[in-house]
Amino acid sequence: DLNTRVTRGSMDEIGTLAAAINDLAVELHRYRSNRREFLANISHELQTPITYLEGYTSALRNRLYETEEEKEQYLQIIQLEAQRMSKLVSDLFELSKMEDGKVALVFEEVNLVEVIENALLKTKIKAQAKGLHLEFNQTYDFPGINADGLRMEQIITNLLENAIRYTENGFIKIKLSTDLGVARAVIEDTGIGIPQEDIPFLFERFYRVEKSRSREFGGTGLGLAIVKQLVELQGGTITVESQIGKGTCFELTFPITRRESP
Ligand code: ADP
């Protein structure tokens, strides 16, 4: 029973042991309630698309549509929800592998300018579709970092996709700079912003500021948890600043590769 506590009656070895057992009990309790919450979240996240799948499949079977367009719409919803489930499952799998330390990163000298340009290429169409301007002015002359190039691209792409998803007007800017052996990348948007009270929880699994809005845009609530893990696995940091209605700014830092002098 986790509510049972060993009474610490003395400061000798037995007393110290009692204190250690109590600490372990607290830790175990925290672990179990985290796990419970996590499982509850997963069930909830899967339940929503399943409800759609069931509803629209039976609507089709019972021919509850009046026009061909309507039928096509139902089919589209089914496809979208199946894709969402698939994304959720693959994100979960990736996150669990990372947490078990089972993600093999391939470290090499990485050029952040190249990484950012690749990520911009992938997200440009989504930005254009919303009339958002993507800005990045940097020449190739930027110090290298020791990282996994593809994982870096995944991080930047994810942050860019979020910026596009949560911005209606204006621009998204990426800036690179260096500071005391550190390379810094800043991704800034003029979007809806994030309330101050949500910021401490932003990188937690399944945390969303506005559930319905995130769902509407195809989010799983796992993106930033994955990003943070990947950043930290590569020795970097990630922080965020935001103002409601003004925009959000994610900042990444990574140690610059030291070059041996010839
Ligand atoms: P999601 O899949 O819901 O986008 P993420 O883990 O990527 O999940 O992000 C968590 C939450 O953080 C989002 O639901 C959203 O509320 C908020 N968020 C992330 N990036 C931004 C941004 N650039 N502007 C405003 N809100 C953001």
From TrEMBL:
Residues 41-258 form the Histidine kinase domain. One of its GO terms (cellular component) is membrane raft. It is an enzyme of class 2 (transferase). Signal peptide: none annotated. It is found in: Cell membrane; Membrane raft. It catalyses: ATP + protein L-histidine = ADP + protein N-phospho-L-histidine. Residues 1-33 form the HAMP domain. Keywords: ATP-binding, Cell membrane, Kinase, Membrane, Nucleotide-binding, Phosphoprotein, Transferase, Transmembrane, Transmembrane helix, Two-component regulatory system. Its main location: membrane. It is a multi-pass membrane protein. Its EC number is 2.7.13.3. One of its GO terms (molecular function) is ATP binding. This is histidine kinase.
